[in-house]
From TrEMBL:
Its cofactor is Zn(2+). The keyword ATP-binding applies. Gene3D superfamilies: Cysteine-tRNA ligase, C-terminal anti-codon recognition domain, HUPs. This is cysteine--tRNA ligase. Residues 38-470 form the tRNA synthetases class I catalytic domain. The gene is ABSGL_05643.1 scaffold 7188. It comes from Absidia glauca (Pin mould).
Length: 771
């Protein structure tokens, strides 16, 4: 025992990593460089993303930001395993919302109250048309005057060259022209209708619908200030908020953990603004409150426009940030000062405040809602690059002025621009694509695969030729998954357990030099993907590495299809699938592949499910009918067989009846099932044929036997006159033909013969009587 105690474990050495490990870095807009990502609280990551201003359908420009942020979020949550708290707002108080809500309300009102076409209505539309010409064509010198003087000759003078020149001055020129022309022809149609005594509501509606944009602008100008029902300003954004979330769901974008809505945070906004005033960084002027950029910038270590210092003083950006109703505001000390609180005018939603009735400015909304959930500091703030100045710079100034802190946000991430076919997306260029339109052309998976080809902050060009490449890549991935699944399935069912048989009857493990090579490639790719994701979530490089792994594995399958290592293939395919799940490309439930729901090319749930549901419903109808009719048990069993062997086979569903009475459900290609069904039917037909033949033979023998019984035992011996001459009353011979009495021993035999015939004859009679 003593010697055992004296023996000690040898010294243990801490392993040294073979190479330096990459750390996660983010392209940080606060430095314009890649900075190491250090969350303030270990694994916890707090994140605020600027959400949508809800007044219209979301387009691919919005998708650029929300999909990019979704990919980063998924990588942080599912790859780096951070506990992320993702907060996003909905801006439902905004100048654009107010104007659109009022316009829609006034236009709908006009349509509802218009019962027929008359000269007054045509005049109203024509006045609106003229006003629209004056205001919308003013940027192009001389255009408004010529258009009002003679529309047709003005239109004729707009050659492609002239139009191109005009677009340089006003990018919306062509769109304006289109709207004016549509309305102009509707006006002349209406005049003709009226002259022909057709003053129906249909004609009136046609005029109004064709002139909606034009009429709405003038209605709002005239009556906008009379709109004061708060419900109008709530219902309009609520509708578009729903649409936004439908789009995000269709794109498989994760829902925010916490969602805030501006209209529900007005009291917090008022308190926040008051504190900024108290801290000396804001002032009230004529019912509005402005941020005092002059006092703030440089005071107490504060900097205004930390993200884009060079944009400070950019009037166009500042005005755009203040909103279309903002230009009416007055009283700022400097043109850099922006509104925290806007004194409302009639026709705008209002809330009471210490500065009078008003509503929050745009930028303050995000500062307040982000602070309300995440407090005085957050790890990540994000949004589209367009928001960097002034929105995000103003947010930072407000929050840092409120908290008197130096760094409210540690990492500011900005999603890059989206172009369409090389050009900025714009309604006037007709390259404007809503998310719904894009989803009609491509699946959500294809769009996401396309987005993964661009790093989140890069400029993206959404073009058809690139989408074709993406679809090709998707097919490559799908084929890879199908091939691996096929090999694995085969090995599962062929009894080899993945080992190869050798000519001498032994088996081998299939881990040779080619397998070692493939495994080492996999490890290298895993390292490379990790390095790419650490490099500010560089998805294009990560996807390249993954696709390269797929092609290496395809080569391995091709060269050794009879002897591949299934465990290794499973390892590669599971890893590729896991990366696709992390990127939101594959379903979470999938082991290998994109998953069941996304196997559909169009991803349409209804198209996928309806055939199965019809079968289910039809079977239910049948069972209920039979139960009501007290149908015998075998009819139920027959119906079950038809369901299994016919209806489900046609749907590619295989039900394997198990010993425990339940069925194993499998999705198998329809063709395979039909082939199996035909084989089964052929075997059954053969069995049936044999059964029928046997039955016929039995019947023949029975009839033969029956035939023997046709003769009555009474007559059995009477025909045998060569043997017998006299019979008793039962027909039993008493004397031979020679007149001698039949011997006793012979009589006994004859009696036996008689008895047998009696039995046969009775049976015969019974059968005959039955018939
Ligand atoms: Zn924001």
């Amino acid at each position: 025992m003593a010697s055992e105690i004296s023996r000690q474990q040898p010294k243990w050495h801490l392993p040294t990593p073979s190479s330096a490990q990459p750390v996660l870095k983010f392209q940080n807009s606060l430095t314009k460089t890649k900075t190491d990502f250090v969350p303030k609280r270990g694994r916890q990551v707090t994140w605020y993303n600027c959400g949508p201003t809800v007044y219209d359908a979301s387009h691919m420009g919005h998708a650029r930001t929300y999909l990019a942020m979704d990919i980063i979020r998924r990588v942080l949550e599912d790859y780096f395993k951070y506990d992320v708290l993702f907060v996003q707002n909905v801006t439902d108080i905004d100048d654009k919302i107010i104007i659109r809500a009022r316009q829609q309300y006034l236009f709908n009102n006009l349509k509802q109250t218009t019962q027929h076409l008359d000269a007054a209505l045509i005049n109203t539309v024509e006045d609106a048309w003229k006003a629209y010409v004056s205001s919308k064509l003013e940027k192009v010198a001389g255009a408004a005057e010529s258009a009002l003087k003679d529309w047709d000759s003005f239109l004729a003078s707009m050659t492609p060259e002239e139009t191109a020149k005009a677009i340089l001055v006003d990018e919306k020129f062509k769109m304006t022209l289109g709207a004016l022309q549509t309305s102009r022809s509707a006006i002349s149609n209406a005049q003709k209708s009226l002259a022909a005594n057709d003053s129906s509501k249909v004609q009136a509606d046609a005029l109004l619908d064709a002139s909606q944009d034009i009429v709405s602008v003038s209605l709002d100008k005239e009556h906008g200030s009379e709109v004061n029902d708060p419900k109008i300003f709530r219902d309009f954004p609520a509708y578009w908020e729903d649409k936004y979330f439908e789009d995000m769901e269709a794109l498989n974008v994760r829902k925010p953990d916490i969602q805030t809505r501006v209209s529900e945070y007005v009291p917090e906004i008022i308190t926040y603004v008051q504190k900024i005033i108290d801290n000396g960084y804001a002032y009230e002027a004529q019912g509005s409150v402005y941020f005092d950029t002059g006092r703030y910038d440089g005071h107490d270590g504060h900097h205004y426009a930390k993200l884009e210092p060079w944009s400070k003083g950019n009037t166009a950006l500042i005005e755009d940030g203040e909103g279309s109703l903002g230009s009416k505001l007055t009283g700022q000390k400097s043109k850099n000062d922006f509104a925290l609180w806007k004194g409302s005018k009639p026709g705008e939603p209002t809330w009471d405040s210490p500065w009078g009735a008003g509503r929050p400015g745009w930028h303050i909304e995000c500062s307040v809602m982000a602070s309300a959930v995440l407090g005085e500091n957050m790890d990540i703030h994000s949004g589209g690059i367009d928001l960097a100045f002034p929105h995000h710079d103003n947010e930072l100034a407000q929050a840092e002025g409120y908290y008197n802190c130096k760094q409210w946000v540690n990492y500011f991430l900005h999603a890059g621009h989206l172009h369409v076919e090389g050009q900025k997306m714009s309604k006037s260029l007709k390259n404007f694509i809503s998310i719904q339109e894009a989803l009609k052309l491509y699946t959500a998976r294809q769009i996401r695969l396309f987005f993964l080809q661009y790093q989140w902050n890069a400029k993206m060009d959404f073009k058809q030729s690139s989408m074709m490449e993406v679809i090709q890549g998707e097919t490559t991935l799908k084929n890879f998954f199908d091939n691996v699944k096929g090999v694995l399935h085969k090995i599962r069912s062929d009894g080899s357990r993945g080992a190869s048989e050798l000519p001498n009857g032994g088996v081998t493990h299939r881990f040779g030099p080619t397998e070692a090579q493939l495994l080492s490639t996999l490890q290298a790719k895993q390292d490379a993907v990790h390095a790419a994701l650490c490099d500010s979530i560089n998805t294009p490089v990560a996807m390249d590495e993954i696709m390269n792994m797929v092609s290496q594995t395809n080569k391995y399958i091709a060269t050794g299809s009879k002897a591949v290592n299934p465990h290794l293939l499973n390892k590669v395919a599971t890893w590729v699938t896991s990366m696709m799940k992390i990127f939101g490309v594959a379903d979470n439930g999938a082991d290998i592949g994109f998953g069941s729901s996304s196997d559909q090319a169009n991803g349409n749930v209804e198209d996928t499910l309806m055939p199965y549901l019809h079968t289910l419903s039809g079977f239910r109808d049948q069972v209920r009918r039979m139960a009501r009719d007290n149908a015998p048990q075998n009819q139920f069993l027959e119906a079950c067989d038809v369901l299994r062997d016919t209806q489900l086979v046609d749907l590619g569903v295989s039900l394997d009846d198990q010993e425990d009475g339940s069925a194993l459900v499998k999705l198998v290609p329809r063709e395979e099932l039909i082939e199996a069904r035909e084989k089964k039917q052929a075997i059954q037909a053969e069995k049936e044929q044999k059964r029928q033949a046997a039955q016929a033979e039995r019947e023949r023998k029975r009839l033969e036997k029956l035939e023997k019984g046709r003769v009555s035992p009474m007559d059995l011996f009477k025909s045998r006159t060569d043997e017998f001459s006299r019979f008793d009353d039962q027909g039993l011979p008493t004397h031979t033909k020679d007149g001698e009495e039949v011997a006793k021993s012979r009589k006994k035999k004859l009696q036996k013969e008689w008895d047998t015939q009696k039995k046969l004859h009775d049976e015969f009679n019974k059968e005959m009587g039955n018939q």
